[in-house]
Specification:
Layout (H helix, E strand, L loop, with lengths): L2 H25 L7 H7 L13 H15 L15 H17 L3 H24 L3 H27 L7 H26 L4 H16 L4 H20 L12
Helix pairs in contact: 1-4, 3-6, 4-5, 5-6, 6-8, 7-8, 7-9, 8-9
Amino acid sequence: MKKELLVKLLNIIGFVAALYVNYLSVVTQLGGKSIRELSDKYANLFTPANQTFAIWSLIYTLVFIFLIAQFLPSSKKSRFYNSYLFLTSCLLNGAWIVAWQLECIGLSLLIMFALLATLAMINQQADTEKLLLPKIVFGVYLGWICIATVANVTTWLVAFNFTIPFSIQVFSTLAILIVAAIIVAWVMKRLANPFLAFAVTWAFYGVYVKRIIDVPEIAYTAIAMGILVLLSIAIFSIRPGVKKLQG
């Protein structure tokens, strides 16, 4: 079997495996609690509204389209479609769910960092070959994981059960929102990929919905940072650099 075909088949197997682990996390609740229950257990002011996590449906749909596109003739000569990076991301995705549901928060954070780095490399490779479809798919994916990583860090801190005054929590969350927006804007410029902005803005909107009643200053800052991220596309004059849709 040629390496090209092997990679494509492994990509499909890896994706199905990641989906299956996601399914198990919902049906069997692995560690005894659902992902949502654990999110509520380690709730913090940065956690977005529950409905925000529906973006995973979009991410997985985009990935499915990518998996179909890898079999198109135009992808045969592309190094991007013959890389093991996507398979690695699938394995890390599944590993994170297991670590999270077993409440190994520190380990889940390390896995999240690894997933973030892997997706960054995938996006960099897509930019090098100027491929539009992968930039859309993995731009949205990376954008969400950028925010998920920040949320994972805050969860890790919450797990230590520090007694922190509410005013300090609010100030810290405001700082996190601002820093996160700046970092994402920089990453978009670095990778020449504006599609990160859509997932990040959606996440900030989720924070707005969650906090508009109890902590409006966080809600309005989240919306402002979402707008900043969108505006940064024009500010940095980011261009997708399209060569071909599939390869």
